[in-house]
Design goal:
Length: 76
């Protein structure tokens, strides 16, 4: 990542891809916002599954099933 950032700020970052009169479809803000949202989503998923929230949420809607599944005599 450090290599790509240094490459972007060097003179190689000014090379145009396409015709001389063409303009980019997206602004620089849009290109920086994409990786930001990717990292934010990965952090959210890490938090979501690390704290076992899916089981807690499903337990709110189906408490009887969880009580039967995890009762002491469930495996017999």
């Amino acid at each position: 990542m450090l290599f790509l950032i240094s490459l972007a700020f060097s003179h190689y970052g000014n090379i145009r891809l396409g015709a001389d009169d063409s303009r980019p479809d997206y602004s620089n803000l849009t290109w920086w916002y994409g990786p930001f949202l990717l990292c934010r989503g990965l952090l959210w998923l890490t938090f979501f599954y690390h704290h076992n929230l899916p089981m807690r949420i499903s337990n709110l809607f189906y408490p009887i099933l969880w009580e039967r599944a995890f009762s002491p005599g469930a495996g017999q």
